[in-house]
């Protein structure tokens, strides 16, 4: 069973799975944080716009 995991990927995948399996150096950020920051900025800008609108 261990041989199946070490087997090369089929040619049709183009090596994309190997690319995404590689670990890179750098910061690891949770996707929830990445999505919540722009949403929070949009919400804050709407709130500021609604209170400061003439």
List keywords for this structure.
mainly alpha; 61% helix; 54 residues; rod-shaped; 3 helices
Commentary on this structure:
The chain has helices at 2-6, 16-21, 31-52. The longest helix is centred in the last third of the chain and has 22 residues, at 31-52. It is rod-shaped and about 55 Å long. The protein has a domain at 27-54. 61% of the residues lie in helices and 0% in strands. It is mainly α and 54 residues long. The chain has three helices and no strands.
Give a short overview.
It contains 3 helices and no strands. The protein has helices at residues 2-6, 16-21, 31-52.
- Low-confidence residue ranges: none
What characterizes the major β-sheet?
none
Helix content: 55-70%
What is the overall shape?
A: rod-shaped
Alpha-beta classification: mainly alpha
- How many β-strand stretches? 0
In terms of quaternary structure, the protein is single chain
Layout of helices and strands, plus pairs?
Blueprint: H1 2-6, H2 16-21, H3 31-52
């Amino acid at each position: 069973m261990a041989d199946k995991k070490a087997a090369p990927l089929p040619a049709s995948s183009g090596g994309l799975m190997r690319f995404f399996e590689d670990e890179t150096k750098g910061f690891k950020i949770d996707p929830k944080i990445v999505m919540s920051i722009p949403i929070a900025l949009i919400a804050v800008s709407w709130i500021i716009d609604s209170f400061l609108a003439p």
